[in-house]
Amino acid sequence: MDILILILFILIVLFCIISLIYMLIYNKLNDLVIRINEVEANIDTNLRNKYDLINRSVSIIKGNTDLKNDIFEEIVKLRSRKISNFELERKLSDAYNEFLTIKEKYRDINSDELVKISLELSELNEKLTILIEYYNTNITKYNKMISLFPTNIVAKINKYQTKLFFDRKDMSDDDYNDFKL
Fold first, then answer.
1. pLDDT tens digits, residue range 63-87?
2. Cα separation of 27 and 21, whole Å?
3. Nearest-angstrom CA–CA distance, 39 and 137
4. Is the pLDDT of residue 178 over 50?
5. CA distances from 133 to 51, 66, 89, 165 (A)
6. How far is CA 165 from CA 44, 78, 84, 125, 134, in A?
7. What would the 3-class secondary structure string for 18-81 be?
8. Angle between helices 112-147 and 2-64 (to 10 degrees)
């Protein structure tokens, strides 16, 4: 009888230890998921603000230069398309580079609004760089956790999947075409 009680006690202790480890790992995974979701929301907000600023600059530039329809073509097309934040960030980076080129070429545009937009775009780019770096750092931690033992067991039980980096690069596949500059 004493051995049965001892075995039962050992099983209960083992169950408690395993449950505690499971909860700690589960909480750590959820913490990373929450961080990733929050930074995604912040990136989304900043990308929308960047889009709006570039969009506002179009009318100012068209009104003060001889450029008419051939500026920010991709931005104008985006109004009617649904794209991911990854693609939007690339398109907005191209548009920002175009904005800087036009601003450099047409230095005589003395619009206070354009100067304000330029400063805000610069600040947004800095924020986005920091947010994307933070996102990718947390994705690295998350992907590492769901691939290493024993956290991979908890991840499989809860159906966690690996996530792509912000630039959509998948480090675990053999597709080298997703490493575009």
1. 777 766 667 777 767 766 778 888 8
2. 10
3. 11
4. no
5. 20, 38, 14, 10
6. 15, 23, 13, 18, 11
7. HHHHHHHHHHHHHHHHHHHHHHHHHHHHHHHHHHHHHHHHHHHHHHHCCCCCCCCHHHHHHCCC
8. 160
Take residue 65 and report the two structure tokens written for it: 């230069």
Which tokens is 122 given?
């610069």
Distance of CA 131 to the CA centre of its chain: 7
Summarize pLDDT for 94-149 with one digit per residue, the tens. Answer: 889 988 888 888 777 767 888 898 899 999 999 999 999 999 999 999 999 999 99
What per-residue confidence (pLDDT) applies to 36?
A: 96
